[in-house]
Specification:
The chain is an all-alpha fold. It is built from 1 helix and no strands.
């Protein structure tokens, strides 16, 4: 018969299971946000230049 996991093992397993999607989702979100800012930067520069005139 198998031993039941201790509370520490259960918490560690839960933390790892919860951390993986959080890290992947966070990296994906930050990547998309960074790409959006990078792609729209020329548009913001043009708007700023028109306002300054």
């Amino acid at each position: 018969m198998e031993e039941e996991p201790t509370w520490a093992e259960l918490l560690l397993t839960f933390a790892i299971v919860a951390a993986v999607p959080t890290v992947i989702g966070g990296a994906l979100f930050l990547s998309l946000f960074g790409l959006t800012m990078w792609v729209t930067a020329p548009l913001r520069r043009r708007r700023r230049a028109r306002k300054a005139e």
